[in-house]
Design brief:
The complex is a heterodimer of chains A (280) and B (165). Chain A is of the alpha+beta class and 280 residues long. Chain A is 35% helix and 24% strand. Chain A has 12 helices and 13 strands. Chain A has a 5-stranded antiparallel sheet with strand order 3-4-9-5-6. In chain A, a hairpin with a 5-residue loop joins strand 11 (182-190) and strand 12 (196-204). In chain A, helix 11 (230-240) packs across helix 12 (251-278). The longest helix of chain A has 28 residues, at 251-278. Chain B has 165 residues and is an alpha+beta fold. Chain B contains 5 helices and 6 strands. Chain B has helices at residues 32-39, 96-104, 113-126, 132-138, 150-164, and strands spanning 2-3, 10-17, 20-27, 59-62, 65-68, 81-83. In chain B, strands 3-2-6-4-5 form a 5-stranded mixed sheet, with helices on one face. In chain B, helix 2 (96-104) packs across helix 5. The longest helix of chain B is centred in the C-terminal third of the chain and has 15 residues, at 150-164. Classes of the chains: A alpha+beta (280), B alpha+beta (165).
């Protein structure tokens, strides 16, 4: 951390290397130093922190460890399903989730789901530490709230309560090794009578950062989620969505698809919450 | 956390390469791909996507895991057990996966084959009896522009079945 305090603005942090190495090779890395954090220690797998009712994923935890983690399978099956489809096994064997968040590529699945999960990012410096919400972390393409002397040390994800469900949906050109054209994630909380008491809904890969769909959330809270509302959701999403130029498809297509994905993510989250309320 | 030397500096790394201990001086910014293909002349480690991790032709096994050598720094091989396809056959005797690839016609031009075999080996070491879906998933990171994949999946399935019986 002392090195970053002194030379942070002239350094790139390397964990899995999946973003840094190609940039380095192409001469796109203009900074003079690479700070290799592979030796910082910490758990190499996700950890259940029951005291604080959260799952913690350290800076060096690779995608593959999340995909195969029993605690993730039990508490966050949506994250496991996302990881199973991320990039390729070669990349998942080395790339880290924290590195994915720091690379802040707009066409990426994890930032959107982590925002919906209300993950909290612990960022450290030689001076101390602070927390940033995953929903606020990414500012734009390749740009985050990380200051040059800071390092993302840990991702903390609150354990979903027993009446909460998570949904995630994506569209890509192929099933494998393709970045999403759009993705959506929802975290829905239901009351005993089946009404929505809280909703967090995000769209990813359409704009330069995950976008919160507050209008959709407001439409859902207080109502029974079943039946008839998906057309309204789709319209609301395409009304507010912000676009990032994408040569792979038109903005109009993205807006339309984002609406459908939000509907699906919400429906999946509601179904998941109902299953969890009903119990095993 | 350790501050790495400046870009352009050299270091010595030691690792196991196809069963032999090696020690070599590397540039700290050199990729594992460059080290293996150009310094060690292991031309079975190939590149089709020019180093962006999208083709799988450069796949190697690092401590048994399928790994993208083009996205890894050579320095990160330090202390690891590294295998390329050159380690699969025992002398003249092909590995069961290689035999199955030949028997099933799972290759045409052969450029992707080394990477395919290693990704398949990592799968079978971990999951000895995979489903076709699991095989397809494990090979997602390996592109083939000739075969259409069906025969490759057949071959991996055959190798898994024959290893069992």
């Amino acid at each position: 951390m002392d090195f970053l305090a002194e030379r942070g603005s002239d350094s790139s942090i390397l964990a899995g290397g999946m973003s840094i190495v190609p940039a380095l090779k192409r001469g796109l890395l203009t900074r003079r130093f690479i700070v290799n954090i592979k030796g910082i220690g910490g758990s190499s797998a996700p950890v259940l922190d029951a005291t604080n009712a959260q799952l913690t994923i350290g800076a060096l935890v690779r995608h593959r460890e999340i995909e195969t983690s029993p605690v993730i399978a039990e508490h966050l099956p949506a994250l496991r399903a996302l990881e199973e489809r991320l990039a390729s096994i070669q990349i998942r064997n080395h790339g880290t989730l924290a590195g994915n968040l720091c690379a802040a590529e707009s066409w990426s699945d994890p930032p959107c789901l982590l925002a919906a999960l209300d993950a909290s990012l612990l960022v450290v410096t030689a001076r101390g530490e602070r927390r940033v919400s995953a929903a606020d972390w990414i500012l734009g393409e390749g740009e985050t709230r990380r200051q040059p002397d800071e390092m993302l040390l840990r991702i903390d994800i609150p354990l979903p309560a027993a009446n909460v469900g998570i949904g995630h949906a994506r569209v890509a050109a192929r099933q494998g090794l393709a970045r999403p054209l759009a993705c959506a994630a929802a975290r829905m909380t239901l009351s005993e009578s089946g009404r929505v008491t809280a909703a967090r809904v995000f769209v990813g890969a359409v704009g330069p950062r995950p976008q919160r769909m507050t209008e959709v959330e407001a439409m859902l809270v207080g109502h029974r989620p079943d039946g008839g509302s998906s057309a309204d959701i789709e319209q609301a999403v395409s009304r507010v969505i912000e676009h990032h130029p994408d040569e792979r498809c038109s903005a109009r297509y993205k807006a339309q698809v984002a609406g459908v994905l939000v509907s699906r993510a919400v429906a999946d989250a509601v179904a998941h919450a109902k299953r969890r309320i009903a119990g095993p | 956390m350790t501050a790495s030397p400046e870009i352009g500096a050299t270091r010595e790394v030691a690792f196991s390469l196809n069963g032999t201990d090696v020690r070599v001086a590397i540039d700290v910014t050199q990729t594992a791909f460059d080290l293996l293909r150009h310094d060690f002349r292991l031309t079975s480690v190939r590149s089709a996507c020019d180093g962006i991790g999208m083709c799988g032709a450069c796949t190697i096994l690092v401590d048994g895991r399928a790994s993208p050598s083009c996205l890894m720094l050579a320095i990160d091989l330090a202390g690891a057990r590294v295998e390329t396809v050159d380690a699969l056959a025992e002398g003249e005797r092909l590995h069961p996966l290689q035999q199955a690839f030949v028997a099933k016609g799972a290759l045409q031009c052969g450029y992707c084959t080394a990477g395919m075999l290693l990704a398949a080996k990592a799968l079978l070491d971990d999951t000895p009896r995979p489903t076709r879906e699991q095989i397809a998933r494990a090979l997602t990171g390996n592109l083939c522009r000739c075969t259409g994949y069906a025969k490759i999946i057949d071959a991996v399935e055959t190798a898994a079945r024959e290893a069992k019986s």
